[in-house]
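Protein: D-malate dehydrogenase (decarboxylating)
Species: Collibacillus ludicampi
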Amino acid sequence: MNKYEIALIPGDGIGKEVVPAAVKVLEAAAEIDGGFSWSFTEFPWSCEYYLKHGVMMPEDGLETLKNFQHIFLGAVGMPSLVPDHVSLWGLLIKIRRSFEQAVNIRPAKLLRGLESPLRDPKPFDLIVVRENSEGEYSEIGGSIHKGMDEVVIQNNVFTRKGTERAIRYGFELAKSRRKHVTSATKSNGIVYSMPFWDRVFNEVKTDYPDIETTSTHIDALAAYFVMKPHLFDVIVSSNLFGDILTDLGGAIMGSIGIAPAANINVEGKYPSMFEPVHGSAPDIAGKGIANPIGQIWTGKMLLDHLGHQEVGNLILEAIEDTLEAGIKTPDLKGNATTEEVTSAIIANMKKRV
Ligand SMILES: NC(=O)C1=CN([C@@H]2O[C@H](COP(=O)(O)OP(=O)(O)OC[C@H]3O[C@@H](n4cnc5c(N)ncnc54)[C@H](O)[C@@H]3O)[C@@H](O)[C@H]2O)C=CC1
Ligand SMILES: CC(=O)C(=O)O
Ligand SMILES: [K+]
Ligand SMILES: [Mn+2]
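Structure follows.
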């Protein structure tokens, strides 16, 4: 029987509430499936850890994580304690980069039992493949002078390797879906990186004659996400464009609290990291009302990645059953707690088997 060694990093804020909730669901999934088990090891790396130790994770933190099959993370960031660029670059982004988690896979679909804020949307089911290792998120740049003479430069970095890897991943994914890839571009305003992105996209697409393609500027694409999201299948994007687009993907489903994500090490050389789209939500942390569905659906993505699609699909069905029964947290205009939603999802999984 397979035993999966998973590192848990709840992180900050609601991460500490939704990770334990999702772990309960993953344990229930293993029990129902009967063909595998989990071994979870929790790490307290977070902004509170930083206040005590001056670092977000110990010096050998990455060495420690390397021994695990995958990482299940909540969210990082508590700006009242630690500046966001320090906390995120000291933990979340450090793991993504060091473990070459080159793409971030972020689905959005209209769920049964959930009212989208869009009026009368056609059913949509899309996946954003976000480049996850470079782009607009870079540490290249600097500043000179002070006061009115202050000058700040932040460089974007687009490598052929990173760009092609993300775009190709999107095409491969589209093969097993509805065979359409949209490229998120902005080559009308950004004169070097985005024309380069377009060029690589056009080169890669010649390897996939059966896949239809569209190239759309990110501003129009954002509007289309609201007006006609059903038109999209796979969208490939740079790091920042994908970041923004996937909060919007969560929003059109009903809440960013339900949007799942997976940071994938494509070669399988390092652990991949599964963490929802949302952040640590300091505004609702500690109240027991965080929506656990984003983290739980992220758990389904972990199961899919491990080859357990059947029980993964059971989780999504149980999520939809729970929504249909009206058991929802306040972000979905309900009055259930994190705990109540989690228990209902587990009960609905058991009901279906
Ligand atoms: N991957 C990560 O670890 C991310 C970390 N962050 C960090 O999180 C902190 C807060 O960032 P924000 O910009 O406020 O984004 P956020 O995603 O934490 O929250 C935005 C809004 O969505 C709500 N929300 C988010 N997740 C929810 C859930 N599961 N259930 C119910 N409501 C939910 C929040 O209450 C808030 O009103 C910052 O430190 C930020 O840097 C932000 C995004 C991603
Ligand atoms: C940092 C952040 O917002 C994200 O990776 O989605
Ligand atoms: K997250
Ligand atoms: Mn984000």
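Remarks: The domain at 1-105+259-353 is CATH 3.40.718.10 (Isopropylmalate Dehydrogenase).
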